[in-house]
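re: ur question from earlier - yeah i can do the single chain one, its not a big deal. heres the input i used so u can compare w yours
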Amino acid sequence: MEKLLKEQWTRLKNMEIKSEQKHLIISPRKVRPVADVIKKLSVQKAIDSLPFIKKRGSDLLLKVIKSAVANALQKGVSVTDLKFKEIQIGEGPRLKRGQPVSRGRWHPIKKRMSHIKVILETIKKEQVVEKEKVKTDESKKEVIKEVKATTKVVKKGAKNGTKS
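and the output i got, formated as tokens:
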């Protein structure tokens, strides 16, 4: 039984969950700033905060992230064990439309499409523990440096420029 659990954990340890939405009629230029904000957050925080971003691209990005989370739940991975590996906003084909103007002319309008691809990966539990250890070692070093910086050797009579 333990062997089966270990095998399942090693498979889940480096698992990638993908979700993709293509041919969205919104310019990739309008979706990328939303994706840049979300990349830095955890998956759960991203799902919670996206409805409050007042951009049209946030709703579309939210759908793709929820789809990826649903794929992860189907594989037996919880939302808390996920993080963003990458969010790709690619350019799709363009719809070529036009605006009629004076003298029988026509100004072209390109309606751009975008492809959104979200890749989630599972968080490695061992990495989290190692990072905490490194942080504690660094904080000890900082405390030692601060103590060394505050304790200076003062010679007799060197205070206030007096001689003794």
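The first strand starts at residue 16 and ends at 24. not sure if urs matches, ping me
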